[in-house]
Design brief:
Elements (H helix, E strand, L loop, with lengths): L3 E7 L7 E6 L4 H5 L6 E5 L2 E2 L3 H7 L4 E7 L4 E8 L8 E3 L37 H7 L2 E2 L6 H9 L5 E4 L5 H8 L6 H10 L4 E7 L6 H12 L4 E8 L16 H22 L4 E3 L1 H7 L21 H11 L1 H9 L7 E6 L3 H11 L5 E6 L16 H7 L8 E5 L18 H5 L2 E5 L3 H13 L7
Helix pairs in contact: 7-8, 8-9, 10-12, 11-15
Bound molecules: iron/sulfur cluster.
Length: 455
């Protein structure tokens, strides 16, 4: 018997469900007749809003699916599988009914400080609890409804990542400017439903540091289920007039480190982990070594730029012999430069020098004038800065850059293709994944496949 039958009705496709991206051959999905570009509208009678709904409903051995085919024809399939067998298809997007955007007007919002002409996705101000659960995006809780809290609780969407910034209502109003701020109540409702939370505080000098930070940490420490607190410094660009500094001085950065240290010590005694962690910038700006890997516990806020420097340093030291061997294998005539952000470059250069005292591989910290302000990370470099920053490197040399400068489609922040970068900077450019493994395989690749020599 055919697993599906056409209903013959025609209904608009847009926003009705999840678009199927790929169907693997010889899987339950392909055997049932599912095809790429089908739009899965419902499963076992439940309308699908996102992949979470799909995972929630389709956790058994059989699922009854209603879908739309090209032209709008509705069809029904029954997918069956053996225990443990994957369904064998993927959705094009994780959220089917549109990403929820924020209702706030945060004083420090980085999106409002961006120049024009960047990749469109960069201007999206998402504030969607589903992306928080699926991808670790930080949300503010200011747009959560009662139904959202009920769904989070029912489907166990835990942990979530919350940008809280402060617990003092007046300071919150000054920082977040939400029309109706029930975030602290929502925070407690989620904890009450046994949803674990990771918290972020964007630290704005003179606003939520000092006693306000101490009050926020006290409030958070009283609550079971707050798994970690990450403190990151305000980021600002030159395309605004409101901010001029953000803990860039060694003194200011050390004050924050000193203010947080007693909390880390106390929480280590109480809970066996540091609990509150500072962004790498604080240690870089202070001119101090970042804490040990043990102090970062299981690196709960790694993707938030907390512990990346320590992790990279340790990985370089662990892989020192392999790195030294791959550098020794580079063609003698070839000049190799690794470009990175201005902030991390001194640490990277120092670590590399211990492995490569002959300086066969150079490190260049590239200044970010496109954004300006205190933007110093590699992931925000654009074509103009790369062109300028690499101008002093040998023209016939090879440049290695971290792949975080481009998205998965090979598009840079300034909407240019990464493939055009070599022409723009006038040197051969290759991308590396942003970890020590990527550096190692990139160097090995250069040794095995060096650029052809110019006559
Ligand atoms: S929550 Fe605040 S910082 Fe985040 S996008 Fe909205 S306005 Fe910007």
């Amino acid at each position: 018997m055919s697993a599906w039958g056409e209903y013959g009705r025609h209904i608009p496709l847009a926003g009705r469900g999840g678009v199927v991206a790929v169907v693997e051959p010889e899987t339950p999905a392909s055997r049932a007749g599912l095809q790429a570009q089908d739009v899965v509208v419902s499963a076992d009678g439940q309308q699908l809003r996102d992949v979470i709904d799909w995972q929630w409903v389709a956790d058994g051995s059989q699922v009854d699916v209603v879908l739309l085919r090209s032209g709008g024809a509705e069809a029904r399939l029954v997918l069956r599988r053996e225990p443990g067998e994957p369904w064998g298809f993927s959705f094009a997007e994780t959220v089917f009914d549109g990403v929820r955007t924020c209702r706030n007007r945060c004083a420090f919002c980085f999106m409002t400080q961006l120049p024009k002409g960047l990749r469109r996705a960069l201007y999206l101000r998402d504030d969607d609890y589903r992306l928080s659960f699926l991808q670790g995006n930080f949300i503010t809780l200011t747009n959560l409804s009662d139904d959202d809290v009920a769904r989070i609780s029912e489907q166990r969407l835990s942990p979530l990542y919350v940008s809280l910034h402060a617990t003092d209502p007046e300071v919150r109003q000054r920082l977040v400017c939400a029309r109706e701020d029930r975030a602290l109540d929502r925070f407690d409702e989620l904890l009450g439903a046994d949803i674990d939370l990771h918290v972020q505080i964007v630290l704005v000098p003179g606003v939520n540091d000092g006693p306000v930070l101490q009050e926020s940490l006290s409030w958070l420490a009283e609550r079971e289920g707050v798994l970690s607190v990450g403190i990151v410094p305000l980021g600002y660009t030159a395309h605004q007039q409101r901010f001029e500094g953000s803990f860039e001085s060694s003194t200011a950065a050390r004050e924050v480190i000193a203010a947080v240290a007693p909390w880390q010590e106390a929480m280590r005694v109480r809970d066996g982990c540091s609990w509150v962690y500072l962004a790498d910038e604080f240690y870089l700006n202070a001119g101090l070594e970042p804490p040990s890997a043990e102090d970062y516990d299981d690196f709960p806020q790694y993707a938030n730029g907390i512990g990346m420097v320590r992790d990279f340093m340790d990985a370089m030291r662990t892989s020192a012999l392999e790195l030294a061997t791959s550098i020794a294998d580079l063609p003698l005539h070839l000049s190799v430069t690794v470009g990175t952000g201005e902030l991390f470059a001194p640490v990277f250069a120092r670590e590399l020098l211990a492995i490569d005292p002959a300086r066969r591989v150079a490190v260049v910290g590239i200044r970010n004038d496109f954004f300006g302000g205190n933007v110093g990370v590699a992931g925000l470099l654009t074509t103009s800065d790369l062109t300028h920053g690499l101008a002093q490197t040998p023209e016939d040399g090879l440049v290695l850059l971290p792949d975080c400068i481009a998205n998965a489609d090979g598009v840079l922040l300034d909407d240019r293709l990464v493939a055009s970068l070599g022409t723009a900077v006038g040197r051969e450019v290759r991308l590396l994944s942003c970890d020590v493994g990527g550096l190692l395989s990139g160097l090995r690749d250069v040794a095995d496949n060096p650029p052809s020599r110019k006559e």
